[in-house]
What we know:
By secondary structure, this protein is of the alpha+beta class. The protein has helices at 8-12, 93-96, 106-114, 125-134, 139-153, 172-188, 195-201, 206-217, 221-239, 244-250, 256-267, 271-286, and strands at residues 18-24, 37-44, 47-51, 54-58, 63-66, 72-76, 84-91, 119-121, 158-160. The protein folds into two domains: 8-160, Jelly Rolls (Sandwich); 172-286, Orthogonal Bundle (Arc Repressor Mutant, subunit A), CATH 1.10.10. The protein contains twelve helices and nine strands. It has a six-stranded antiparallel β-sheet with strand order 1-7-2-5-8-9. α4 packs antiparallel against α5, α7 packs across α8 and α9 crosses α12. It is globular and about 55 Å long.
Amino acid sequence: MRPALEDVALRKGNYSFVVYPYSTPAFEFKWHYHPEYELTLIVQGAGSRIVGDSHLPFQENDLVLLGPWLPHTWFSHSEYNGECKAVVIQFSESFLKPFYSFTEFEAIAELLKDAGRGLCFEQDANIIKEITGIAETKEMHRVASLFNILQLLLTKKRNYLSQKFFVLKQSEKSQSRINEVCKFVHDHAGDSITLEEVARKIHLSKSAFCKFFKRTMKVTFSAYINDIRIANACRLLTFSDHTIREIAVETGFDNITYFNRVFFKKKNCTPTAFRKAVADNYAGHAE
């Protein structure tokens, strides 16, 4: 599966920025990036979201702002049945740059700078209404609506997604290689994956592959696999009644002690505590 330098400019045409509703039977794994900012609202669907080195579950009303060149993808889980819908807004640095010198724009400029690591926002009915309605607006009303959305985002609690800033302007060959590796890991994370096996897929020696992966993804290959496996474990802890030991095995950890140690390092809590926190949070919302 090839990358990902998405041609947003082609879709934009002569408009100042791009807005489009997106509907599909399932969000497919498509690890990609582009030079534009992107604000994505998940209207319907559930699965996993990857932004830079962040691997987290998403569900309806997930709202994320991404900076330029930040690799990302949303993809559905096999157990989710139903249509998937999103609203996507993409806008360029050149569109906003003329406003950067104005005092009124300072806070938004800082917000966009932080978006270089990806930002996830708490749910807000007013913002969701504004985003879902922007595709229906015309001419300057659409531009005004975008600035209003950015202003509203300033008032909401937000969390960084990626631990690092990513700038992935790779050659076409490198893009193809890293996408093949990432897709393979996501498809086989529950299996035993060897370094030799993955290096051989893109015709590199083990040492050359390790250097290539670390340079491109800003993380070691073993750490990346663990990130994916822990993300899958969190999904199973949330949506299944499998035991901790069963989940460890299903997600690719043969050793329960090692699984617990890696999980605690990534989530700062035990798998049992994570499952309890999710259950308590769900019960709180249900009341």
